[in-house]
Amino acid sequence: MTYDHNNAFARILRGEAACIKLVETEAALAFMDLMPQSDGHVLVIPKEPAMDIFELSDTAAEACMRIDCHVALAVRAALRPDGVVIAQLNGRAAGQTVGHVHFHVIPRWAGQRLRPHARVLAEQATLESFAERIRAHLDDPTYE
Questions:
Q1: Which of 102, 104, 117, 137 is the catalytic position?
Q2: Which of 42, 72, 51 is nearest to 143 (CA)?
Q3: pTM for this one?
């Protein structure tokens, strides 16, 4: 397969599709998942065009992992989950639904089941509310 420059995340990076941004660097972007598996589910994407992790440069992988950690700490501080999953899926057989490499930062609470992957669209106001809470902890110097 070849990289589709019109995939949803490429369109977000070009400003053709909206997202609820949390943090952005020269190399990567973190934003709220529109179809979250749990409240506070965040996606982190590189700005370089790569379909999966096997196409991703070391520089972009490092940039994504830095943001993954930064966001996971903010999610933990803001939402107080029992745990946080950082996942990355490669290929349809692995569950990848968008052909642009991305990382999931998913808060988890004991006894709470995840919603289906990429199936239930959340309300914009709900996503904005979680984003606001997470953003409040993104610049917290106590965890850097």
A1: 102
A2: 72
A3: 0.93
